[in-house]
UniProtKB/TrEMBL annotation:
Belongs to the Gfo/Idh/MocA family. The keyword Oxidoreductase applies. The keyword Hydrolase does not apply. Residues 1-130 form the Gfo/Idh/MocA-like oxidoreductase N-terminal domain. Residues 138-258 form the GFO/IDH/MocA-like oxidoreductase domain. GO terms for molecular function: nucleotide binding; oxidoreductase activity. Keywords: Oxidoreductase. It holds the Pfam family GFO_IDH_MocA. This is Gfo/Idh/MocA family oxidoreductase.
Length: 350
């Protein structure tokens, strides 16, 4: 397969290494607004994948995304900054090219709705990058819910706690902590439970760097969600979790409870005497925490591009998570509960 990749920043370079390691990728074409960055990543990949290159893997650099799309790759991965996602997605769909797009597919709700409508009127498969759907723990939790192993589910706790805040320049265009950070929790909540969010009540606070408040954002957020079957979900997020990168979910049911992320890498310590859990080592970034999931995600996209499976995370799925984030932002701003029926867009299936 010949796969194209637009954007070689932190996540893009990470995806390039993953794609180059896939057995069914025999040519990887990369591009970036910074041509030198694309050439540097291609050169580094050539060294890292020397064995695969010797066996026939080709690593190319395209002058720009338009040239890459025009060259007719078998699949196109979008890992640019957020403003580039929607325009590139539209161009790839127009070219009939299977697409993998990092979240968010667009910066606004209106444009996300437009892209969901475009995707549903097109025959082109689009896979949106919510990697937690490929994490073994979340898949196990989903199976436990679906099988009835837990009985009825009454409470869920989920959170995304970054070890350190992003650079100040990132925050003004991030969309806010609920759209940027907790949107992953909202998507995986739908995925694990198979339910939709009915209402939200969200709040946020700042105790860290001033640049969050200056951008109209918060460094710590919390939300109480009620699902359409009455399940209560408690969601939290922070940019300041100095003990390590901490992403977890607890699913509490009538017959039992199952937890995701409860292993020796857990970024906390017990206050109980004689307890040596967790022993470490801890995870320090989302890429470290979800490395196997990212690898499985792009292997799945290769299967999507070959026509062997449907998209495991559609633009409609991304829209539903975005609608929950939008409701949380509105709730935080207006200090009131918000029903999802107040948010533009329609419900979909997880």
């Amino acid at each position: 397969m010949r796969i194209g990749l637009a954007g070689v920043g932190r996540i893009g370079a990470f995806h390039a290494r993953t794609l180059a390691a896939l057995d069914d990728v025999d040519e990887l074409v990369v591009t970036d607004a910074d041509r030198q960055a694309a050439e540097r990543v291609a050169a580094e990949l050539g060294l890292q994948m020397a064995g695969r290159v010797a066996a026939g893997l080709r690593i190319q650099v395209a002058p720009d995304a338009d040239a890459l799309i025009a060259s007719g790759v078998d699949g196109f991965v979008i890992a640019t900054a957020t403003p580039g996602h929607a325009p590139l997605l539209r161009r790839a769909v127009a070219a009939g090219m299977p697409v993998f797009c990092e979240k968010p597919v667009a910066a606004t709700l209106k444009e996300t709705i437009e892209l969901a409508d475009l995707a549903e009127t097109s025959q082109v498969p689009i896979h949106v990058g919510f990697q937690r759907r490929f994490d073994a723990g979340y898949l196990r939790a989903r199976a436990a819910v679906a099988s009835g192993e837990l009985g009825f589910v009454h409470t869920i706790r989920a959170g995304t706690h970054d070890q350190a805040p992003p650079h100040a320049s990132y925050v003004p265009t991030s969309g806010g902590i609920f759209r940027d950070c907790n949107v992953h929790d909202f998507d995986i909540l739908r995925f694990v439970t198979g339910r939709e969010v009915a209402t939200v009540y969200a709040t946020g606070a700042n105790k860290g760097a001033a640049f969050f408040a200056e951008a109209g954002d918060v460094d710590t957020g919390g939300a109480l969600l009620t699902l359409d079957d009455g399940t209560i979900a408690l969601i939290s997020s922070t940019r300041y979790n100095g003990g390590g990168h901490d992403v977890r979910m607890e699913v509490h049911g009538e017959k039992g409870t199952i937890a995701v992320g409860l292993d020796h890498s857990l970024a906390m310590r017990s206050a109980e005497e004689g307890v040596d859990f967790p022993r470490g080592p801890r995870k320090w970034s989302f890429m470290e925490r979800f490395l196997p999931a990212y690898q499985a995600e792009l292997a799945a996209f290769a299967a999507v591009a070959r026509g062997e499976r449907p998209s495991p995370c559609t633009v409609r799925d991304a829209l539903e998570a975005f609608r929950v984030a939008e409701a949380c932002e509105l709730s935080q701003t207006e200090r009131r509960p918000v029903a999802l029926s107040e948010i533009e867009g329609i419900g979909g299936g997880a």
